[in-house]
Structures are given as structure tokens and as C-alpha cells.
Amino acid sequence: MYIKDLSLHEEKEITLQGWAANKRESKGLVFIILRDGTGLCQCVVDANKVSEEIFAHAQKVSLETSLSITGTVVKDDRQVGGYELQATSVTIIGGSVDYPIAKKEHGVEFLMDHRHLWLRSQRQWAIMKIRNRIIYSIHQFFQEEGYIQMDAPLFTANASEGTSTLFETDFYGEPSYLSQSGQLYGEAMAMAMGKIYTFGPTFRAEKSKTRRHLSEFWMIEPEMAFHDIFQNMDVIEAFLRKVVSDVLAECKNELAIIGRDTALLENIVKPFPRLTYDEAVKIIKGEENVNGVNAIESLEEELKKVVARMEEVKAEIAEREEKIKVPGMKKGEIGFNQAKIDKLKQELADLEEDQRNIPGWLNSARNFEYGNDFGGSDETVITRLFDRPIMVYNWPHEVKAFYLKRDPNNSHFARGVDVLAPEGYGEIVGGGERETDLTLLVDKINEHKLPMEAFEWYLDLRRFGSVPHAGFGLGLERLVTWVCKLPHVRESIPFPRMYGRLKP
Q1: Which run of H or of E encompasses 188?
Q2: Quick one: angle between helices 295-325 and 331-366, nearest 10?
Q3: Burial class (CB in 10 A: 0-12, 13-18, 19+), 395
Q4: pLDDT at 161
């Protein structure tokens, strides 16, 4: 039996198998919170209702001991999941001595070093459940829309967007690279199948330690024949709306566990604002307002609020720490105050990070040079002003990939589109319409100083029955990070690989 199915077995005797997520004792009672991967259940072991041997087994249970517990399922709305198990038998399967991840606060590096165990925590469990739902919904969307899933190679002889961020490796004596995108191959497959999508790992050798970067991550890359940039944007919007709506409908418990305020996610049903690059730049530089709000002025005001709130939090921490020092305070009151102190310290850490970041965002916005690509700061500045994802399209062609089509109305721009998530999360989707003019494509390959012979197969797609086509790439982990409102992308994947992190 599984914990998720307890409602089907009310007042029946069943056996659960899992691990002890928590345990406490109280006057002849042992309370074990059992987890089995599908949920959590409180199991009550009463000394008056079980043998001395069974009760002794229950008392020996420590954090992450694996167990088999038999008992009767009882309805109790106060408990997690609404049910508890009144135990009649407890069997220890595998002991757990000195489990290293305790209830106390641990540093990020410690938790990352113990990622194989950290995944067992309730928060990480919830994040992985949401990730799984997102993956399921992605496949569901494309399959229901008539796309064919196909696979691009991970070993490639050339780069799709330049060689500066590639992992080079040896392929039977010949230099090759780990794929940074399956998009070029996706174009070939779309010319065969009409509409396709790939879903697989990709690699970027950027020596970056920002909260948005991984060296190994999963990409979803659809490619559609007979689509232009505007049809492409329609697909992106419908796709994101479907996936986020599914998470809201199917992951209420998991979103609650991680404390995600879903108000902004619920705005996914509204049309996505579509801005040209020129319009977006004016907003970033404070030359245009969004619904009466100015990017520069709002950041300046936010910084003042952050500084004021920091002083309030510091004062409350000091006040509660003094309270705890007073002799005679009850244990429960000490625990309550300590919990508040821990929460306030976390808030203070977040505020201190804002105090460090906001001046940088302001500086970047004020000094943004027209024609540049958007950096993380620029994306943060503009997305703070919107309550849903926005689409920025028609970019200066110099800052975008060689394969993007020039805007027929203005050759200075490429028909690319970036989708930026709100709340400062920035780019989650990049795509656009592909260049179909053979001469222009050859010129761009030369301009980017890419080896022409490596792209002859790609140029064949323009020589033999070329059609207008478009597509995009979604970074799975960036989507998970935004949907879950995670402070860092490292929590969005079971075992992150990033600059400085190869183990466990």
C-alpha cells in the first residue's frame, strides 16, 4: 500500500513501507512520520496496544530508518494528508545512525555535498514532484498538438551558436563537442515530419556561478515547418499556459509545501505582453512606464524599503534574543522565539542580498547601451514590472544566433524572441524564425567565423525544398526554478552539474 492511497482504505488494516522523516515520544506513545515517496503519514504506536517488543522497536527508530508499519487507517483532518495509521506492528528494515542532515540549518555547500540525501527532504521532494508534472505536461502538450518527438545527437562536430561555451571531447580520435542545442538537427527533422520536438540534455561550458546557470541541463526544442515568428509566439504562449496551469491544478499540495504564492502563476491565463526590443529598452532605461510604474524610480523606492525593513528585522532579532536569555522562560516559548529568530535571519539574508543587487540593477539600467543583448540585471529590471511572462522580439541581428531570419521590414533586426519570466527570473525561452535565404545564411556563417564545411548539411535544408519555419528552446530547469520560485537553479534538478560542482 502507498500513503497516497490511504483514503481508499479507511478503517482497514494495511501495511506501509517507507522511511522515518520524523519521530517524537510522549508518555507511552511514539509518533513516527513515515514517508514512502508518495506522501507523509503519521503512525501512532501506543504502548497499551502493542507488545513491549514492538514498542521497543518504535523507540529505536531514528531519522531515515527504513520501516514496515502495519496498522489501521483512521481519518484525522489535523494530520498531513488527512489520515493517520494506528500501528499494531513496527518492523525495522534498515537502521540509520547519525543521519547527517538534521533539523538545524545547514549551509548550501554542505547540502550540495549531501545532495544524495538532501533529496529526501520534504521541500526537495515537492520540487521534484513539480518538475515531474512539468515534464509530463510538456510531452502531453506536444503529443496532443500532433508533434513527433525525435532525438538530436549529443556528440556534434560543430557548434550551433559558436564554440566559446562548448565542452570539447574526443570521438575516436576526432575532436567533437557535447551538444549545446539540438536545434539545427531539429530543423532537419521538421523538414521530414512537419512538427517535431526534442527533449534531452544539453551542455554549456560557461564558467558562471550565477543563480541561473548550469553546465548540464535539459532542453525542450520544438521546430515547426510553415511557421513564422508570430505563429511561433502563439505556440510558446499556449505551451507555457498549458504547463503552468497543469501544475496549479495538479500540484496544490507540493506548491503549499514549498510555500509558493501562486497568485502570479495564476496570471498565466492572461495574454502575454509582446514588446519589440526597442520598446523593452525604453522601459529598462526608465524612458517609458508600465502601467504608470517607472523601472528606475521603482527600484530606487524598493531600495529604501529594503534598508528600512533591514533595521526593523535586526531590532526584532535582538529583542527576541534578549528574551531567550531571561531565566525561567518555558521551553515551548524558547522554541517559539528561536523559530522566529531563525525565520527573521533568513529574511535578513534575503534583504541583504537585495541591498547588494539593487544598486547593480540600477546602474545596469541607467547605462544600458542600445544594441546590446540583455543581461541578467536587465531582465530583472523589466520583468519586475509585469505580472506574467513577457515576449521580447525583433532583436539587433548582431547579438543573436546566425540562423535567425532578418526582419523583412528592417534588416537591422533578427526575428528572434525571448520569453522572460516575471519576479526577476528572466529568460526561460529563446527562439525565433529561421533564415531561409541561402546567401544570407552563408554570409552569417562567415560573419561568425564558423567552419563552412561543418554546415554544408545544414545549408542543404535551404537547397532542397526550403520553407518558412520557426522554433524555440525551453530550459526545463529555468522553468522549474520560476514556477517553484527557487532562489537558485541548483534545486531544480536532482543532481546539478555546474561550474565548481561535479559531485556527488
Answers
A1: helix 183-193
A2: 160
A3: buried
A4: 60
Which residues fall within 8 angstroms of residue 387, CB to CB, at 6 or more apart? 264, 267, 270, 422
**Tens digit of each residue's pLDDT (9 = 90 or more) over 437-492:** 999 999 999 988 888 988 999 999 999 999 999 999 999 999 999 999 998 999 99
| Residue length of the chain | 504
- Which residue shows C-alpha cell 511561433? 232
Kindly give the pairing relationship between strand 29-35 and strand 40-46. Answer: antiparallel
Percent of the chain with pLDDT over 70: 98
Q: Which grid cell is 269?
A: 491565463
Q: What angle do CA 496, 482, 261 make, to 5 degrees?
A: 125
Q: Name which residue leads in pLDDT, 51 or 79.
A: 51
Query: What angle (nearest 5°) sits at the alpha carbon of residue 474, between those of residues 468 and 475?
Result: 150
Lowest average pLDDT, out of 215-224, 310-319, 444-453, 471-480, goes to 444-453
Cell of 430: 529563446
Report which of 158, 180, 161 is spatially closest to residue 171, judged by C-alpha positions. 158
Q: Give the C-alpha distances (Å, rounded to integers) separating 136 from 129, 130, 242.
A: 11, 10, 11
- φ, ψ of residue 176 in degrees (nearest 5): -145, 175
CA–CA distance, 81 with 396 (Å, rounded to integer): 53
Residue with cell string 531544480: 492
Q: For residue 404, what is the DSSP state?
A: B
Task: Provide the 3-class DSSP secondary structure of residue 204.
Answer: coil
Report whether 504 contacts 115 (CB < 8 A): yes
Reported as half-sphere exposure (CB side, CA atoms, 13 A), residue 353 has a value of 9
Residue with cell 520557426: 470
Distance CA 415, CA 227 (A): 12
Q: Could you give the CA distance from residue 474 to residue 481 in angstroms, rounded to a whole number?
A: 12
- DSSP code string of 418-441: EEEETTTTEEEEEEEEBP--HHHH
By DSSP bridging, strand 148-149 and strand 174-178 are unpaired
Map residue 83 onto helix, strand or coil. strand
Return the SS3 of 219. strand
d(CA 358, CA 353): 9
pLDDT of residue 275: 97
Asked whether the bond before 504 is cis by omega within 30 degrees of 0, the reply is: yes
In Å, how far are 375, 391, 393, 395 from 212, measured between CA atoms? 11, 19, 21, 22
H/E segment holding residue 14 = strand 13-25
Using an 8 Å Cβ cutoff, are 469 and 458 in contact? no
Radius of gyration of the chain (CA): 27
Q: What is the pLDDT of residue 341?
A: 92
Name residue, grid cell 499494531. Answer: 88
Helix or strand (DSSP H, E) at 43: strand 40-46
Strand 148-149 to strand 66-75: parallel, antiparallel, or no bridges (unpaired)?
Answer: unpaired
Q: Cα(329)–Cα(436) distance, rounded to whole angstroms? A: 76
